[in-house]
Write the structure tokens for this entry.
Amino acid sequence: MSNRLSPKPPVNPIVMGKIGSAYGIRGWLRVFSSTEDAESIFNYQPWFIQSKSGWQLVEIDSWKYHNQDLIIKVKGVDDRDAANLLTNGEIVVDSSQLPELDEGDYYWKDLIGCRVVTVTGYELGKIVDMMETGSNDVMVVKANLKDAFGVKERLVPFLTEQVVKRVDLSAQTIEVDWDPGF
């Protein structure tokens, strides 16, 4: 029994990737990172995965590239059977591990659920998802039930200045210059 404090389970969990299948017989595992640069996932520690008994800490001994795959060696996981127990686990960190963003940059998780309102005050709906296109991010806005234009969903580009005029995360509102009929 060690005296050092073990990291606390995440209070505001955010998924950073997923643990893939076992690799080899010595307990290595593939990792799928959802960070912009795959290996940035290692900048966010500690990792947790949700197990039947709650949060499980995943301590990484080492990692490396194998062909195109990222593979990790987890502390205390020394054979394929032990590795298989972690397979398909979502890699979760506490969002406090994420760096502070520059002004005008936002995490998608903070935008989802925000109301989107035009500069003229028309309520377009709520952001239910974000999509990445080659050139810019796009807000997937689920329209209100009684939308005057009969639209169920709008795709609004997240272009600061041209389209997005104001983001108020405390009020969960994003003001946009956008034609509600579009």
Observations:
- The first strand starts at residue 13 and ends at 23.
- The radius of gyration is 21 Å.
- The chain has a mean pLDDT of 90.
